[in-house]
Write a structure and sequence with these properties.
By secondary structure, this protein is of the alpha+beta class. The strands form 2 sheets. Strands 2-3-8-5-7-6 form a 6-stranded mixed beta barrel. A 6-stranded mixed β-barrel has the order 12-13-17-14-16-15.
């Protein structure tokens, strides 16, 4: 038997079918373009956002390191470098401070620091940008940050230019000229109220006599994906420390970045799944309706000997031809959006400051576009597979009788069947699969828009700032046992009349009399969460060790003095109330549970004995309550394992207990109109007064950065959601177009037996109404269920989020859907039906 090889005829049939079905082509091309465009855009912008956010967290931290050791020895340094469970180890040496007047006669204070090669390349370089030149090598070379250059009055720096400087090191005041080896932009505050920093060479610190053991800090970065607590415990066990030395941790910026990337990729994949599903539904619906419309044509091909395989090829070839045009168009639109429109929109809302830690880069990943093209083509293949199978399996006789309705009932006998609204309802569900596809695609876009928009709306800038930055200006001491903010500094702040509120938080290190029974919840919390403590029998030894520490007067906690408002806020959110008067008198205190120890509430009602460090005077106070980790905002500056993280006391108690308390947190509020002026005055005070280590934060500087992040997410999420709804509406329009076209004979017959055009319009309006009403019911049930889930999940994802019901969005969607569903069917009918009833009956008979 010879093969029926009619490839040329099949290609010609496919080409002519494409030329004939212009309306089908338009919908199919739009569906493919939208699917391709959205997948490529979501991945491109999403990956760029994850990368930019990752960069921002590293820049804000100022390093990729997460474990530090002050005053390390050379032996400790080289031993840590050889550990196989760390990524890198580096050293930095504090090498003095530039102190001089600039051209405006303002005091300039810039720390001088040396980084070794590992610290510079592995840990510091990822946290800076716009690097010009090289790290200094010679004794008289120096590399400055852009902010340091600005402080010195250098606007147009040039490589190898000479800069005369006055600085203070361990040898006293020195005046010397340095050659500029390079400059860069950094984002970490170095305790001088700004981001200015000067980097010096190894030869310089050797000449000046700076020693690693006396002036150095050892930094350790861990491998991505490593268990940070496990690494920290290992390094404590493997490295012998000198008396007074201890490792300390900071937030691991690389770990936080990895978490953000994982979350972003999960969101991207979820959105892409919605897109693929919506695109599949639309493409499938377009091809299915097209095949159903041309089913008689395929039946006739069977009559003249066309095989099922060849008919499938005819259908596939049509779709593939359209894909070869639509996919490149979708990718081109995505390219333009990713590298044109979206960055422009982002820049409108981003902070214009050159020191903004959030970059505005969009990453170009060619593999995304190649993968998207293949993925879109695979989606198209799946979408047309079943319609092609339907066309190839239909027999000539079935094709002649095909109406698109599969029903076991031959007749619909009803005395009420002639009612227009009943006829319309029957027409909507005449092809149940087609109706389901329309409702599914519409619902998918609506649910995506409601959930994503509801979530992002809850991440309001105001909520974030009220939770994490409730004050306009904040000073934080990074040396809690030092008098960083002295009386002269505080007096300068008090002279600013525009400051409406100022709160000074004081603290002091206090001894605690070791009480085994009282401290058991904390001791067990530390002991059993440490992977290197094994077995109950060692717990007694651990407690004996802490008791020995207490005998050396080194065991204790940090006392933090707070106002009455902290107790009032506590009483509003906790079942067990604190006696405010007892707190004011110093009889009752609040302990912190920032480390989330279990059963720490068992300590409430028990007494703890505090011991003043200088006088050894003991004071017994009752524990009245426990601050959870969210409420404990100060004590992490000096927490030691095995101790109560912190004890909050009244200001009256602090004044009575000790004379050594120092200010370590200053909060200030001003009127919005006075904020810029006050910020400038505070920055001026920062350079003129304080010489300690501190961090200065202004809410206005944070607002723009966070707002730009949320704006970027809104632009992406809303665009995707709107496009998904657009796909659903395209499905509806396509169903109505093909529905009206396939029912031309039926409508003509109805008109011939007495139905007026007005009644036809009313019936079509009812059909649109049913589509809108059923979609509304889905929105009110499934949509509200999704909104409820989002309201529960949102506060767990972001503790500052407050979920509000998207009433405005819901109402807008309802109005838009009803308008489109009520107007489109009649518009299509008017555009399609222009001939008389007789001509339409004659035309359908010939077809």
């Amino acid at each position: 038997m010879h093969k029926n090889n009619n490839q040329t005829a099949i290609k010609r049939l496919s080409k002519r079918s494409i030329q004939k079905n212009r309306t089908r082509n338009m919908f199919a091309v739009m569906a493919i373009i939208l699917t391709t465009y959205m997948i490529a855009t979501v991945f491109s912008i999403g990956i760029s956002f994850a990368k930019n956010y990752s960069t921002m967290t590293i820049r804000a931290a100022g390093t990729t390191a997460s474990i530090f050791l002050d005053h390390p020895t050379e032996e400790q340094y080289y031993k840590i470098k050889q550990l196989d469970y760390i990524e890198a180890a580096g050293i930095q040496v504090k090498a003095g401070t530039i102190e001089q007047h600039n051209e405006d006669n303002a005091d300039v204070t810039i720390p001088m620091i040396y980084y070794d090669e590992s610290q510079w390349e592995s840990m510091y370089t990822p946290a800076i940008s716009h690097i010009n030149g090289d790290y200094p090598v010679r004794e008289n070379e120096m590399m400055l940050s852009v902010e340091a250059l600005n402080q010195l009055g250098i606007v147009n720096p040039k490589l190898n230019m000479t800069i005369p400087l006055s600085y203070v090191d361990q040898n006293g005041e020195v005046s010397e000229s340095f050659r500029l080896s390079g400059w860069f932009t950094n984002y970490k505050d170095y305790g001088n109220g700004g981001v200015g920093i000067a980097l010096v060479s190894q030869q310089y610190i050797k000449k000046s006599g700076f020693m690693l053991e006396e002036n150095g800090v050892l930094s350790v970065s861990t491998n991505t994906g490593a268990q940070k607590e496990e690494v920290y415990s290992k390094i404590e066990k493997d490295i012998a420390l000198k008396p007074g030395q201890e490792f300390y941790k900071k937030v691991d910026s690389s770990e936080e970045s990895s978490n953000i990337i994982m979350i972003t990729m999960a969101v991207i994949c979820s959105i892409s799944l919605f897109i693929v599903l919506s695109g599949y539904l639309l493409i499938y619906n377009v091809i299915y309706i097209s095949v159903a419309k041309d089913i008689r044509f395929y039946g006739m091909l069977k009559v003249i000997g066309t095989s099922s395989k060849q008919i499938r090829k005819v259908v596939h070839n049509q779709v593939y031809r359209l894909s070869f045009v639509a996919i490149p168009v979708g990718l081109a639109l995505s390219f333009i959006t990713s590298f044109g429109v979206v960055p422009m929109a982002m820049k409108i809302f981003q902070d214009d400051s050159v020191y903004s830690a959030m970059p505005n880069d969009l990453s170009f990943h060619p593999i995304i576009f190649v993968g998207t093209a293949l993925f879109a083509f695979f989606t198209i293949y799946l979408s047309c597979r079943k319609p092609a199978k339907m066309a190839s399996n239909v027999s000539p006789i079935e094709a002649l009788r095909y109406t698109g309705v599969v029903s076991k009932k031959k007749n619909r006998d009803s005395t009420k069947g002639s009612k227009l609204h009943r006829m319309a309802f029957h027409n909507v569900f005449r092809v149940k699969k087609r109706a389901f596809l329309v409702f599914a695609s519409l619902t998918l876009g609506i649910l995506t828009l409601l959930s994503v928009n509801g979530f992002l709306d809850s991440l309001k800038v105001e909520n974030y700032l009220d939770t994490y930055y409730p004050n306009d200006f904040v000073y934080q001491s990074t040396e809690v046992d030092k008098e960083v903010f002295d009386d002269h500094f505080l007096a300068k702040l008090s002279q600013i009349d525009e400051i409406s509120e100022m709160e000074i938080i004081t603290s002091v290190r206090s001894g605690v009399v070791y009480d085994d029974a009282l401290l058991t919840p904390i001791l067990k919390g530390v002991y059993y969460h440490d992977p290197y403590f094994k077995g109950q029998e060692q717990f007694a030894s651990y407690k004996e060790f802490l008791s020995h520490v207490e005998s050396l007067e080194d065991y204790g906690t940090r006392l933090i003095a707070v106002g009455d408002d902290y107790v009032e806020s506590y009483n509003k959110t906790h079942h067990q109330q604190i006696d405010l008067k007892a707190f004011q008198k110093g009889e009752t205190v609040i302990i912190s549970n920032s480390m989330n120890y279990e059963n720490i509430e068992d300590m409430i009602g028990k007494k703890v004995v505090l011991k003043e460090k200088d006088t050894n005077k003991e004071t017994s106070v009752m524990i009245g309550g426990v601050f959870n980790s969210k409420e404990s905002e100060y004590e992490l500056y000096s927490y030691r394992f095995g101790e109560i993280p912190a004890i909050y006391v009244s200001e009256a108690f602090m004044n009575k207990f000790t004379n050594n308390a120092t200010a370590f947190f200053i909060k200030m509020n001003v009127d919005d109109s006075r904020e810029p002026a006050v910020k400038n005055r505070l920055k001026n005070i920062n350079t003129q007064v304080s010489s300690g280590e501190y961090v200065f934060e202004a809410k206005s500087d944070v607002t723009a950065s966070f707002a730009s992040t949320i704006t970027n997410m809104n632009i992406l999420a809303d665009s995707v959601s709107i496009l998904l709804i657009f796909i659903g509406l395209l499905n509806f329009v396509n169903v109505m177009v093909t529905g009206v076209h396939s029912r031309l004979k039926e409508l003509a017959v109805l008109e011939s037996i007495g139905m007026t055009k007005k009644q036809v319009h009313q019936m079509l309006t009812y059909e649109g109404f049913y589509y809108a009403f059923i979609t509304l019911m889905i929105m009110m049930t499934l949509g509200n269920a999704v909104i409820y889930v989002m309201s529960v999940v949102t506060p767990k994802i972001a503790d500052y989020a407050t979920f509000d019901y998207p009433l405005t969005l819901m109402s807008t969607l309802i109005v838009i859907i009803f308008m489109i569903c009520l107007l489109v069917p009649n518009m299509i009918y008017r555009l399609t039906v222009k001939d008389s009833v007789t001509e339409r009956l004659r035309e359908t008979e010939t077809n």
